[in-house]
């Protein structure tokens, strides 16, 4: 069953107001999305190595947020994804602020783990800014691409949307975060290598996860009775007012 706005017969000047609906799983999924995002921020300081590959522990977890973004947009529409992205964005800011506040609280004499605590929570402002900008731009690029591809494919061939949106969104995210983090401190050749290796990993991750994405999307469409098409959606990240 497709629940969405009817095809337009004339120029549309504003996004129609969607009727407010209570979904069974949307809030739960948004909560899981935010938890995964915050945990990926906390474990980012751990560097691991598998054979010749060296990567942050966050790279094992962060791509899952893009899978969630695909699910939100595919099932509930771009508006639901926009809501989840903003909640995640504001939650990440809160985590960074409270983490820095905790680091700079004077440690008690009996507390001997200040340096270890600082390693996890003492993120420098440049890292915070780079991560937030890349997350914001990448997630919205991902959701926008998927919503547009859904219209282009008339809802068929889900894999083209999940993979295609990841190619765009993760490309934006990876380029931004690496350039903002390392420009001026690392040679351009190293930055390019970091971008290419991280980008390829994330795209392959998405391709491998496609069967799971299919299963979750199909389950939610049946359970929620919704398959939203963003035909008249205002795609501005800052748009407010449409119900879910």
Protein topology:
Elements: H1 26-42, E1 47-50, E2 53-56, H2 63-76, H3 78-104, H4 114-121, H5 125-152, H6 158-182, H7 188-208, H8 210-224
Antiparallel strand pairs: 1-2
Helix pairs in contact: 1-2, 1-3, 2-3, 2-5, 2-6, 2-8, 3-4, 3-5, 5-6, 6-7
At a glance:
The protein is mainly alpha-helical and 244 residues long. It has helices at residues 26-42, 63-76, 78-104, 114-121, 125-152, 158-182, 188-208, 210-224, and strands spanning 47-50, 53-56.
Structure characterization notes:
This protein is mainly alpha-helical and 244 residues long. 64% of the residues lie in helices and 3% in strands. The chain is built from eight helices and two strands. It has a two-stranded antiparallel sheet with strand order 1-2. The longest helix is centred in the middle third of the chain and has 28 residues, at 125-152. The two termini are 17 Å apart.
